[in-house]
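Example A, followed by Example B.
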Amino acid sequence: MFADDPEYKIWISLEVKEEPTGFSEGSESDELSDDESEKYSSEISDDDNEALLTAEWNNSCEDENKNVCSFQEQTGIREHLIRKDPTDFFEMLFTEELLLQIVWNVNQYGTKLRQSRGNKSRAARWSNITLNDIKVFLGLLFHMGTYISNDMSNYWKSDEIHGIPIFKNSMGRDKFLLIMQYLNFENIDNAQGHQMPQGSFIVDYFNKIMEKTFKPDKILCIDESLVFLKDQYLRGKESKDGVKLHLLADQYGLVQKVLVLQEDKNKKTKTKVRVNEIIHMLLEERLGVGHSVYMNKYYNSIGLSKHLMSRNTHTTGILMPDGKGIPSDITQKQLKKGEKITKYSPDGISLTKWMDRAEILVISTEHSGEWEERTTKSQNVCRIPTSISKYNHYRGAVERHKQMMSYYNCQHKTTNWYKKLGIHILQMLLVNSHNLYNRYGEKSIPLAEYRTVIIRHLLRKDEVSDTSERNFTEMHTLIKIVTTPLQKRGRKRCVICYKNNKRTTVQTTCSKCPKQPGLCMGKCFEEYHLNLKE
């Protein structure tokens, strides 16, 4: 499972005013360890910052080719994953591995509540769900973003104003609400609680599946996004209305990596050090290959640009005027509209201050501050510094993604905050699959049309010809393989895939079969047991 891979552990820690049931404090995985914090914050030493204050800035660059970063990495979607149909691009990111872990988590938590509560509670009616159930659940959940209602139960009403027949025909209201109640995004190995901060896998899965599926081009963009959590106050956050996500995207708005971190009040560290940690965690797999990164003013600093330049990575972005190391010639210079001033460091870093409607200060290790002519919408020719022109062109990558996310928001007020964050990640995967389809599929289609195809695909029920065969397969359930001293990895070869000359190793086996064969979730599991029935 992706969640079991320690290389991609990015723990999420969110602190709430009133902790839900099952949430325990003191988890060591809730925040960066001291070793990780020291690793990222020590990249820029105090000596480097002192050198920035005493560096001599010139009016011209001595060597324009000094900071050339060659980018030679193979980019694009993996060849063996290329498909032509929208559903194939969707299943490329929404793998059975992801759905299997969600099914497991929901069943585990539902069974736990059924045993602990009385017979008259709603939990007493709970029965384990299947892979097809979670597909229908996701289809209806995504469809709620098409027709927004304040109350989830309105979708199952029979009146003409609120009711939508597809909801009632696909899944019962009580079953959907039970799945929503037990929905969680916790690692399988963590059996305590159900909250997202305690070992979430959904962000780890997002980052690894995107790394496995797609290699971005040279241009990257780092920006922040906010998941709004109304009526809930999160202490330690910069906004009381939501949780901040740090996103790494390519120039076409495809989010490659997402990071959610909690500010640590116990550590008296400066914001600059914290930003350095965020940047290095986002670019951990991208450093040294020649990428050009565009960032907003929250992330940029002269010291960070100098360090990333030493790692063969360009940076360009807005710089705060009160940042450390900015020469007084730039900060104190009074400009008229249309004027600029540019300074270059011995390392080739350019600082350009330009007066448009307001003063703009841009730092870049790739572009100079020379004038560039551009034609406006009114066909007027204007001059703009090159570094600012390039930043304006590429800065909107994450904004395009957030714009697509805002069109069909399927979150509701009654949903708990940790579920909102997990559902938001699932919507990000859906938007990413649409982005990939438009770039590598048969044709480019609007997001509304793409969502309709995917929702129809998810609501399509897998038919089983005989009721007795269906009951036979439901008696057998998949469980995670228990590790032994001789088999530490806990993996087996899928017997059905092996018969079809396909090598597949899985972490799941049947709980009832004596031989406990390795089986893939879905068709392999059903085919194996239908053969036993015959």
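Example B, a separate protein, is given below in the same form.
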Amino acid sequence: MSNGETIKDILQQIKDHKLEAREGLRRIHELKQRGDAVSGAEQTLSPEAVEQQVKDVLCRVVKLQPEELSYELSFKEMGIDSISSVEIVRDLNEALHIQLDGIVLYDYPTIPELARYMVDEIQKNSGAMPEKGINPNAVNANPQEQIHEPVQSQRLNHRYEYMNDLIDQFSTNKPAAAPVKPKAPMKEPATRSLKPLTGRQTKEEQAPAPQAPFSAGQPASGAPKLTLKTGAAPIAPAASSTEATGKIKLGFAASRPAEEPVKIMPEAPPGVSVDQATAAAAEGIAIVGLSGRFPGAASARELWRNLRDGVASTGEIPASRFDIQAWYDEDRKADQKTYCTVAGLLDHVDEFDPLFFNISPKEAEIMDPQQRIFLEEAWKALEDAGYSDQAVQDTRCGVFVGCAPSDYTKHLEANRLSNTADAFTGTSSSILAARISYFLNLKGPSISIDTACSSSLVAVHQACVSLWNEECDMALAGGIRLMITPDSMVQSSQMEILSAQGVCRPFDQEADGTLLSEGVGVVVLKPLKQALENRDHIYGVIRGSGVNQDGRTNGITAPSVNSQIQLEKRVYEKFRIDPAEINYVEAHGTGTALGDPIEVKALTEAFREFTQDSQYCALGSVKANIGHATMAAGVAGMIKILLSLKNRQIPPLIHYNRLNEKIRLDESPFYINTELVDWPENKRGSRMAAISGFGFSGTNCHIVIEEYRRGS
């Protein structure tokens, strides 16, 4: 007689009053213990056996052959849906006598990850991992004969305890209650320290080779159409833009071997210990990597070349992007028209290598190009910092992105693709930040931020705050903005903020508005102490940052000089920064008749609280070269500062002829720099810059960046 039949017989005897209830329960409990002992003897599991069991169950439930299983693909990519997940977990629980939650496949989405988790759970519950394997036919046997005894014993255990409680309530001779075994605590997930590669190889050393595009579907008549070209990601050369080579296919992330991290201590200057050198810079945030694409510049290297040479990268919007002439009217008051046809645009925004990022071409085409391009640049920024994908896997790396929903949804609507699951995630701003976190398995905060023109600078600030609060150990921060339809041009013209001349002239008397542009930029941030310990390359150090709001002004988009003054003074006071040591300011500088004078007045008032020196600090604005990249404007200016620090030169402010009559520089700390000059050192023997971003939402951001010098 099986245990199950014996137990049924005992229960029937209790029901017929042939057996005293407590004696019957004692016998059931003994049977359960004997069953546990037998199952424990059978359950001699090794890690290899557990992994094999997972594969056996997957093959049976999903109808796959063993050779079709992949260690790199997630369960979702192998075609396992929520219903299959429940079946898989159920069969694993029955085969291995464990209690996995039904959602465990979401947290451990590959075969190796799930197997490791199950081994940990078995070890935690049994105390040690036995050496021998299990019967490989445990799950593949007849389903009617599959190891039901342990499952029944678990159920009987609960039944036994429940009936014992009932007997206790009505019995005068209550037995002593059995002590409750405390539940084993969950293990904290293992984390890795972030260690750089020993050699700095970047994907910018390869040039793309375009492949043929394919379309998303049959567009409606006259509808706009954007194709996705697969197979060649627009990853620009950094080491040499002239040495074009074929694109190297790196495969999926999980297939690349992990580098063995090597701990390297910082080099301290003579007479100073490593601990002293590290502690002296502990409060700053180091910028250890960067990447970006901007009008006329497929990489940061090309951006610096254009800035150095005074190149303007804006121009007439080509018909290949959209027909701007259909929306043009020279009358600034014309309804739903634009009087400006000039902007700064990126090249090849329809090109993407989806398989490199383990994304299907179908999903990639429906994804907002902003998601695609930021994913590429985030990867390149990590490469520039010297980190492989394996080095950052499962680490507390945060992602902070300034972005806004793009008008790509209009293309999806025109092609009848807007109401799909891929469109739901592919056009979400929150998913934009999460893409790189998901792909690289990053565990730090992942946040998309929209404060309009200050978005990317606010993203950098929030990343710094997260690092200071130890919410993450490293962070990717930046912003992106694309214009896929004429909407932004038309809406900005209705606000009359664009230049009718088609030229952005910050601080100039002839300035008549700004120019819209596209751009994407990402910086890699780490606490300076950690960057020194890891011996990272350091572009610069963020010494302080802050954010505030205009509150109520003359209009919801009108700037406030008082709010700007308060913010800048607060940053200098809080982080003990002397503005007398700031000898360059990358201004918001949009080239508007009202905004530029307000910004210079605020800077002058804030500086004058700390110094009376005059004409020592240069003013500039990257918008003169590339236009206003809105959500990416702040990070574009920051990358300009970092490249200037690297080359120790201040590039010229182009399109400047005569100072705006509303701006007073004679007795101020500032001057306009109109030619490429060496960046002079300040009183401390270093170079320091400030950068501002002012959103038309009223959110302002101010950050101070200093050159890093070993031992400073």
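On Example B: Residues 128-163, 169-227, 230-282 have pLDDT under 50 and may be disordered.
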